[in-house]
Amino acid sequence: MTDAPATPPVAAKDWRDTVFLPKTDFPMKAGLAAKEPVILERWAKIGVYDRLREQRSGREKFILHDGPPYANGDIHMGHAMNKVLKDIIVRSQSLMGKDAPYVPGWDCHGLPIEWKVEEAYRAKKQNKDEVPVAQFRAECRAYADRWVGVQRDQFQRLGVMGDWADPYLTMNYDAEATIVGELLKFAESGQLYRGAKPVMWSPVEKTALAEAEVEYEDIVSTQIDVGFEIASAPEADVLVGATAVIWTTTPWTIPVNQALAYNPALDYVLFGCGGRRFLVEENLMGAFMKRTGIQMEEFLALVKGAALEGATALHPMHALGGFFAKPRPFLPGEFVTRDAGTGLVHMAPDHGEDDFLLCKAHGLEPVFAVDGAGMYRADWGWLGGQGSVINKKFVSADGPICTDLREAGGLLSASDDFAHSYPHSWRSKAKVIFRATPQWFIPMDRAILNGGEGASNGATLRETALDAIEHTRWVPARSQNRIRSMVEGRPDWVISRQRAWGVPIALYVHRETGEYLNDPAVNARIIAAFRENGADAWFTADHQLLLGAEYDLANYEPQKDILDVWFDSGCTHVFTVEARYGADVRANLYLEGSDQHRGWFQSSLLESCGTRGRAPYDAVLTHGFALDGQGRKMSKSLGNVVDPLKIIGESGADILRMWVASTDYFDDVRIGKEVLSTASDAYRKLRNTFRYMLGALDGFDESERVAVEAMPELERYVLTLLGQLDMDLREAADGFELNRYLRRLTDFANEDLSAFFFDIRKDSLYCDGATDPKRRAYRTVLDTLFHALVRYAAPILCFTAEEVWQARFPSEDGSVHFLEWPELPALPGDQPLSTDWADVRRLRTTVTEAIEPLRREKTVRSSLEAEVTVPDMPLSADALAETFIVARVSQAEDVGVTRTDYLKCGRCWRHLPEVSADGELCARCEDVVGHA
Questions:
Q1: Model-level pTM?
Q2: Do 852 and 874 touch, CB atoms closer than 8 A?
Q3: Were both Cys, which of 326, 426, 776, 834 would link to 215 (CB 3.0–4.6 Å)?
């Protein structure tokens, strides 16, 4: 056998004009960065969002309530990922025929905005506290408003469809009125109290912080061992005069110490060294001696912790007199363990929750020695006016605290080498402290009066919230455990902040009793004032007018604190979902990052449970964080920040959207050049699938359509695959499994269509007659595939799907996004497939692999030149030859491949027995050309 033809080819006859090649103007190169803004302009011009609301009016609603980002700075990758996920889900629900509105929102109050405005003051060497409150609040409002505008444009550029003309803003007057109204509901139902207890406090920002506003960083702190001389021990006289040793990593709390805690069940060693006696827990002796260099020269006694009952000790700075001269009682505390330290814990009720609770139970109250800036009060007896307590030098081993303790003989060891995790403000990045201050709280374990507005299976807010968690769908399911554990263990909700930019805690507190005024008529006037003039009304109000004739302002103090912004955002369901869709309506879905289990998910849950007795959502979806290509957190200092705006400007939003949908976003995800390259490659393949279908369907009309029952079995098999795809995609969309959705769609396009169906049928498309039944059937299926796939792709590739749709069905005011889920043709139940096409495809793969070595050796130049043998014949020989795209198929024991003796048709290039010479036409092509 030789590659040279037996007879000379027919002289250069060009049959290209007789072949039906795909024809389309749809470009292979996307050029998304330039096209997408044009498509956005068209959508705005024809009012796609508003018209979609009209078209879906009266349908089942699907409400995804948007968690508000802060109106502060350009969007980052976390924003982009979050908004794209929401948009894909909303669009997919709309595709399934639901009325799926999307109202974007912004958090406009609080420290993120206030901090930025303060930065501008600091740059001009101005003190914010010297600026009138009204002026400062106006500047914060203007700052937030500017960034709302910037972020709105950036989110829209991502392709996010929503009510951008009427978003919700927490600083809108109606929103502020609603927020204060929700606060007053808590007040009216007895779910509000003011108390002094330690909360996380930022000395830099001078305000209390919620847990969600804190992040933990690894730091190195000063650790010290301090001795307290035991003054009395009624149950163990042997201890009097001995030194009780405590260990701490917060030296700055020693000036506020009021007691020592012990565990009655632990064993303590009394030992001598250098003429002094020391008391340390038995199992912690080794670590203590290593830290201090103090060795046990003489064992004196083993004392049970219970023997410390009623004992007292002297503060190491007792010589200062006053507060420091008072004996410090030993108090029993089960939280004292042998895990670290000395088995004795110094108690400062101002600066620790355990400290506060234990001391309060024994009549010891906070003394408020540390002010809001982290400085000791000017009148404090030790280190008055000094600080700040978060200043590393101030608390170091050589700082004034340790120096004074050393001189007083109380410092046993000090070193600046203790590595541990410590809370920081996520805004200022500065260390926070626990600080007792008068704050407003919502109690977690107090019975709710009247049960709020709705029924509940729990009597307290904690019980109600835990019950609501059990009746909510959590995606992924494991996230339920996380929020349950957080709600089970959380303290009372501190809702007050000592700042200026926010919704004020609009309460009047009686100057003598300390009780807040709880009068529905007064509350109604407050809400009306807020609705008319916003929260600013409280700062400029005629408070006597709001109180009315029944109360004398001289007896009441208007509160100056503002609300925690988490309370603000926790109320968004009220002035967005309920206000727009009905008082009894709750959101179908909340979707945010995993950090929101302690943030928005939880604040919304607590707010709604406290006022309505139920959760504000039916389902909650949690996604992970966007990391760089190496799995590291993005940071400007690392130089690894991936800017979504840059990606959009270079590659287009649809590439970014495809990446988002391709990720397993229930966990943290990675993005970098390689990851984006993979997304771009997947996009290109899917785009080329659409381009092929557009070209192959050129000129198709209804007169060409073939009934399903009249189609060849291959076409009916592909329609069967399409039906399976349809069910899988519906299931994935209902489960919010976008990764599975996209993977299933692209696998179908690449493997079932491009690599199989399109590959086999290209011969029929190009070379069969225009009216040939097989070609018509193929084009009919292509039309069905086109209508289905462009719809399936539209939620993810919103721009490209529009481009594809307009390429085939151009219109002035139409859009692919008006379409609904495709209705697929029914397959005749009385015509089951007679062929196991899965077996055929496996055999086809085996044949293709067998041909490849001959192709590499150039024995054959293409599969059309090959003859193959197969052990089984699931189809006729001609049908298999067409399916395998080879010259001939016959049966033998094994798969084999040889070069064919058949000659090549000059038009279709198939090697067939009836071709008399290379370049001559086969019978089919003769017929098609003859009837052209």
A1: 0.85
A2: no
A3: 426
